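[READ THE FOLD]
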Amino acid sequence: MRDVLNPACWAPPRPSGRFVAVWRRNLLVWRKLAIPSLVGNIAEPLIWLVAFGYGMGALVGSVTLPLPGGGTQPVPYLVFLASGSVCMSTMNAATFEALYSAFSRMHVQRTWDGILNAPVTLDDIVLAEMLWAAFKALFAASAILLVMLLLGIGHSPKLVLAWAVLALTGVTFASLALIFNALAKGYDFFTYYFTLFLTPMMFVSGVFFPREQLPGWVQAVGEALPLTHAVQLVRPLFLDHWPADAARHVAVLAGYALAAFWVALALTRRRFAR
């Protein structure tokens, strides 16, 4: 407990420009496995999209959604699911990279220890890992969006802005995952994060069905979760509408990202100070 309250651990982040070299190091390693990694990141969400979008979509038909300016609009379930699943895929890709891959470099392979022998600080490494996980998530989301466009799912020019939202979503969930990376003693620890946090969030954030049909207290819980705000920003863009309360949704995602990164950095400093 005394280590957690150590003021040195909670000092403001002080990264330098050397984080770019760490980020580039991860890129050069990943280039050797880029194709298998890309296939792994996009295969599962596309299977979900085809199975539920076309299969269940044939049973559900359309979903009635409220419009930002008032009124409602029937939306094909395939489009509804696609707009939510691309956010979910960004979340998952950023989380896997910031958990399993970052933990391997930090604890198993001791890559971080080797990097720290160079004139690079721990703040640089943590920032580079967060940005690298966000980049991989955005790369996978871009591939998924491209496939959706080729399938005719969404054609609005406003979808260009979805990349900015998905980039922020990747940063947010990469930062959250790095908290658990700093706390983990082994890979099994990550199961708690997925089972108790990520999986329930997928079902209360409007990815698979409208949040309006959930009990009021569940809606309130969902409103406090970051994935909800990502979906609320991306889904209207698929429908050629501007998101309602966009500034609030962006502020919530940015707040999560900043707070989570600071906590992750503090816990990582404590871990390396032992």
Notes: The chain has a mean pLDDT of 89. The radius of gyration is 19 Å. The longest strand covers residues 62-66. The chain has ten helices and two strands.
